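hi! just following up on the protien thing from before. the input was this:
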Amino acid sequence: MSIRPQFSNQTRGILLMIAAVFTFTVMDAIAKGLSQRLDTIQVVWARYTGQSVIVTLLILPRLRSTLRTRYPKLQLLRALLLLGATSFFFFAISRIGLAEATAIMDISPVLITLGAALFLGEKFGPRRAFGVAAALIGALIIIRPGSGVFSPAAILPLAAAVCYSGYTLATRFVGPNESIWTSLFYTGVIGSLLLSLVVPFVWITPSPGDAGLLLAVGLVGALAQLLMIRALSLAEASLLAPFTYAGLMFATVWGALFYGEYPDAMTWLGGFVIVVAGLYVWLRETRDDRQVQAAE
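and the predicted 3d structure came back as:
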């Protein structure tokens, strides 16, 4: 008779978030390889089309109710921002290392903190300002503008981080008033439809193996989204936030294993500064939340 371990919702949420981050990095690793043989827009299209098909199948019994949205313009904005984030990041990893791109992308949590202060009126004191500044310094250490090793492609993950931060802030604004499935459906479908207008002009007929990998990008991306949704339904976002930095470790492994990419010392240093800054901002936010709850 086997005994199955019993996990709390918080533990299950953490494990699912790590699984989601792991799955996203697998998708990125596949996308990087495909972008070396196919057009990157074609790969982004496969990612969104796969998500659209899977989400539509899952919500089919309640499709009509899921299509209703109170924020049509905001859903369009969210979809465009996420499409921008994915496109910039896929173009980045087709030109620079997975670990390097992921490390720069990891400034998004602190950019979200800055954006929340600017656009949502959330508190932004000197300590959070220090965290944001430190993360940007970390990104500059990796990008190294003006140096001999600077690559303009290193700006792409920075643009992806800005787009993703905007997407997250728009999602915060929607909040609990909109079903997560409604948001997931519109981000996938809008991205897929827009890319379908462009992809015929850049289409490269894939080999049977690459066709299977294109399908895998869509399936793995949708699975990662569903794992993240489930994680957030079991545990608070503030608890799960630090575990997203595991993506840098996974990306480093895939880059070394499949593409012979080994981050240099400056990339490690910049990534360390970004992660520490992100964790610092997270600690400040969770501490402030606890103080507010205690006061109430």
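Residues 25 and 221 are 9 Å apart (CA to CA).
The chain has a mean pLDDT of 86.
cheers
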